[in-house]
Amino acid sequence: MAVLIYIMLINVCGFWIMGADKKRAQQHRWRISEERIWLVAIAFGALGVWLGMQTFRHKTKHRSFMYGVPLLLVIEAVFVAIYYSPFDL
After folding, report:
1. CB distance 18 to 58 below 8 Å
2. Helix/strand/coil (H, E, C) string of the chain?
3. What residues form the membrane-spanning segments (predicted)?
């Protein structure tokens, strides 16, 4: 149960970070670093980051985000599926 709560919270954080960074970019303010965005994505927040990319149309032209985040999302989904698998893998 704690794992699911963590995954939900980190994805909300990833979504929020993408929205906040887009708003800051439009206002020409200090930005959230790409390294921080990737850190959140790698910490099982790839779904939130990807949804934020699509919702806010942010970082959608950066190849590393365009291909890397969906790939990371698939990898994380596989890990979660294995973790919750009823079979001994």
Report:
1. yes
2. CHHHHHHHHHHHHHHHHHHHHHHHHHCCCCCCCHHHHHHHHHHHHHHHHHHHHHHHCCCCCCHHHHHHHHHHHHHHHHHHHHHCCCCCC
3. 37-53, 65-84
